[in-house]
């Protein structure tokens, strides 16, 4: 079944559109009602996986040549990837953008990813510094945003600030930026930060966990983002050894109220 929009004869060549979206999009649009989920999926996938017969034949020849050479799987995938990147077809707009070094995407707001998982990815110190460390040294990781948050100032608004507010309202300074008048030093020589200007708060992103399937990771994320702390040990207690229990019953129930207020 297909819904046909009623048109006046003079509008027979006008696509379906929405006035509000048209002002925001400022380009051609052709809107249709979706009645069949499967047809919608097929329509989108046909755009994502447009057939490129010449590219398929070229990649098959590259794969055959690579199989004949004595290379490992990593180098094999690297050669195939380079062949695809250098020979794939691109539209005129993308060609112009790449030749002129124009950004293919941009955002008016800064986006910050916050690591909340205990087993999250970490960056090690440079090899030049690791060589000078002893074999029993444990502090071999670079300080990320959570570590800088834990070493924030203990005065003013910083003391009661949660990690989400810290990441959204402050930015980390590097190099000569640390010499600016608005640079704020962190404790324990963990670097410098600067408060973002009003109206320029960053958008925070984080890994989402299922409350039913992974309750501990779910509640750790809530506490990590929205409960002020200086160490991870403060996200639990002796009487509330799990993140879920500490969230629901910690400090007489005030932890949940604090987290929910900051989250809102």
UniProtKB/TrEMBL annotation:
Q: Do you know which InterPro entries this protein is assigned to?
A: PIF1_helicase
Q: Which domain of life is it from?
A: Eukaryota
PANTHER family from the UniProt entry: ATP-DEPENDENT DNA HELICASE (PTHR47642)
The protein's name is Uncharacterized protein
- Species name for this entry? Aldrovandia affinis
């Amino acid at each position: 079944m297909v819904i046909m929009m009623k048109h006046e004869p003079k509008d027979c060549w006008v696509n379906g559109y929405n006035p509000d979206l048209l002002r925001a999009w400022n380009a051609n649009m052709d809107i249709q009602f979706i009645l069949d989920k499967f047809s919608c999926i097929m329509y989108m996938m046909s755009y994502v996986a447009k057939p490129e017969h010449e590219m398929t034949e070229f990649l098959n020849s590259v794969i055959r040549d690579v199989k004949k050479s004595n290379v490992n799987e990593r180098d094999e995938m690297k050669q195939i990837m380079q062949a695809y990147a250098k020979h794939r077809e691109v539209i005129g707009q993308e060609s112009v953008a790449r030749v002129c070094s124009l950004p293919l995407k941009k955002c008016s707001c800064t986006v910050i990813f916050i690591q909340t998982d205990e087993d999250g990815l970490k960056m090690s110190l440079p090899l030049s510094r690791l060589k000078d460390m002893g074999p029993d040294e444990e502090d071999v990781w670079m300080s990320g945003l959570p570590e800088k948050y834990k070493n924030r100032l203990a005065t003013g608004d910083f003391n009661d600030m949660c990690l989400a507010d810290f990441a959204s309202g402050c930015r980390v300074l590097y190099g000569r930026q640390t010499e600016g008048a608005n640079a704020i030093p962190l404790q324990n020589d963990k670097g410098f930060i600067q408060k973002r200007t009003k109206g320029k708060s960053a958008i925070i992103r984080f890994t989402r966990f299922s409350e039913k399937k992974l309750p501990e990771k779910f509640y750790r994320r809530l506490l990590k983002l929205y409960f002020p702390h200086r160490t991870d040990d403060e996200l639990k207690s002796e009487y509330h050894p799990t993140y879920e229990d500490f969230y629901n019953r910690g400090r007489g129930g005030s932890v949940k109220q604090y987290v929910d207020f900051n989250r809102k």
